[in-house]
Give the backbone structure.
Amino acid sequence: MARRFERMCEAVTGSREYKSEFGSHGYTVPAWVQELVRLRVLKDTSWHNDVSPSFETADGDIRLWVDHRDPAERETGEETPRFRVDLKSEDETVFEGDDAEGAVESILQSDYDEADGTYYARELGGGEPIKKFKTEGEAIRWIAELPRRMSREV
């Protein structure tokens, strides 16, 4: 009954979540991915017919794939990296690996706003600022340390 209600809500809102699409397969997603969803950098675009959960930027240009935590459980084989970042506008994969920091750095960048003399973390290629910093080093550090700060799985 609860599953039927979730599907009805999905039909009305058009939203899905990796937990409803892949939860029964033991998938977990790092907390940093959920943080980027909370900050509205990414939205959950997971679909059960795909190989793994996926998350896209608001404009749909960047897509993060998060495969199973256990390599032995990955549908396409143990050699498949856990994270993949695709850039749709260029029709290319810009990152593949098990390194969460590399995945984050493929999605976020630091940027300087001359008008107010502030550094920001923002989505690669533009987008709205996510967080404000006094120095570029602080912005770069925040981006690089996001996976370590939020290392748990949800």
About this structure: The two ends are 24 Å apart (CA to CA). Residues 109 and 126 are 9 Å apart (CA to CA).
